[in-house]
UniProtKB/TrEMBL annotation:
The lineage of its organism: Bacteria, Pseudomonadati, Pseudomonadota, Alphaproteobacteria, Hyphomicrobiales. This is Uncharacterized protein. It comes from the Bacteria. It comes from Roseiarcus fermentans.
Amino acid sequence: MSQAQRDQAAEAAAKSAVVRLFGKNAIDRIEVFPAEDHTGEQSLSVTIYLRDYKAYVSGARLLDTIVAVSDALRNIDDLRFPYVTFLAPGYEHAEDDERPAA
């Protein structure tokens, strides 16, 4: 299997796992792309764009998502770690915060 095919299979597996957890209606889109972690190991970046900014994602829910995506990847013999990020409308980056630094 070529790297492109491997990445496509990983993307499909990751997206399917996320949709099973949250349902189609909760998700605007999911972006999955190959990445490297801080040690240079191959990984996957999984960004989940939620439709509703009010959809709170707890630490437990984040962990459930990482486990579900990891399991889905292992099922296709892909051992890359998925780095999962959630974004929603109205999300503000910390660096955009205009409060003065302490």
